[in-house]
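Homework help thread (please don't just give me the answer)

Our assignment gives two proteins as sequence + structure token strings and asks us to describe the second one. The first is just a warm-up. Here they are:
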Amino acid sequence: MSALPQRLSLTSLDTIPALFDTHHRPLVEHLTGVAETLLAEASHDSARVAADMGARHGLYPYLVPEKHGGAAVNAPDAATHVDVRALVLIRDVLGYASPLADAIFAVQGLGSYPIVLAGTDAQRERYLPAVIRGERIAGFGLTEPEAGSDVASMRCEARPDGDGWVLEGDKHFISNVPIAHHHVVFAKVAGDEETLRRIGAPEDPRRRITAFVVESDTPGLEQQSQQLSIHHPIGALRFRGCRIPGDARVGAIGQGFKLAMQTLDTFRISVGAAANGMATAALDDAIAFVKGREQFGKPLSAQQMIQGYLADMATELDAARLLVARAAHQKDTTGGRASTEVAMAKMFATEAAQRIVDKAVQLHGGRGVLTETRVENLYRDIRPLRIYEGTTEIQRIIIARALLEDR
């Protein structure tokens, strides 16, 4: 598509203004121009081009707190505050205009926020300004072949070695691998009992998860691309005698699990926003198609069953926007965790978007499965959102546990 449909203006800010602040309005106006540019691009399959877009349009500063040089969001003294509602607005528009640019933007945040939370001053000075400018693309090395939702079962190890560390193990499904300059990698500290005692490692191996920032060109690190059914830079990391300096550790020994969860809890809500953007694109295309397609002597849009599809799609989309905006508002205004609200929003928005995109494909008929149509691309683009940063099943567990504890 080369033009920006009017419906894109119906972001969460327009439909639920009470949950946003005045400084969000200029951002939405800026994002409209960003979307127009992205939609006009000839190709959306170049990861490096998509990564450069985030820098060119000034989006990466929203991933870093204002105190560390990020976007001014009325929190100049907050060392770890990222404006979650701004992230929601950005990913809503990126999800609409370029799911590839959206995915790279999201992982740029995941691979930077642990440094925001627990990095040394030297680490923050080295990495964060370059992330903001887009000179560095970040990765987030958490998932392993045998450790997905069960993060604590990871096998990747970090062994003390003189004044540094040696990493051994494998990570896979790590986004941004082909283009990342560094990864925040999570590994279990290992070694003999005397060494572990000397460095103060917890006795329980499952509590020894620690974060490290690893340059992509470090000897002993091999990166392998993995092919998905969508345009998405992803791959595996293989650590074989990969030696990193002592100052590569991010936070304390054993703090890695907490850092990973804090990072995911901050950015997970924006996954729902990306889903809303993709769902909006599918609804826009479906409306345009049924208004222009005639069957049985009248436009498809005149058929009551078709109208019912559109009504269901629009209602689910608005409900998803409400849940996402509520969770983002709570994250920004309470300063604390909003795990239940975030889980509800992530679960509902991604599942609803899958249903909306599926209906859009159905409404297109045979054209809906042609690779040249956007709804076919969206059908593949939306699917991973129900898995990454916490599967739908994990979100249900989070919600149910909260309900049971409250009662």
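The one we have to describe:
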Amino acid sequence: MSHSPQDLHKKILGKRGEALAEKYLKKQGFSLIKRNYETPFGEADLIVKKGEEVVFVEVKTRSGDGYGSPAEGVTKAKQARYKKIAAYYISGLEEEVAVRFDVVEVFDGGRVEHIEDAF
């Protein structure tokens, strides 16, 4: 695995974005279930709950707009991975739950945009 200064910058930017997204979601009435939930299929940035709905959240942080909007970085492949992650998580529960997939975009300067039911 590469450990270039650019990789380190991206990791720090991503962790900062996840912290801002979590803070934002908590202010919106969501409660945190898991942060950086790892499975054999990959990692979910945040799993939160509001009411009876469990929400799997992909956080995308960008320091500029050279690569499009943060949400544009959530590819079909990433969406498919999130669906497998959700199925894996749900398989360990004793009850049925409603599930949703959201994207939280974090922009340079700390602005947060929440896209509900993004995929």
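TA reply:
I won't write it for you, but here's a hint about the kind of observation we're looking for: The beta strands are 31-39, 42-50, 53-61, 98-106, 112-115.
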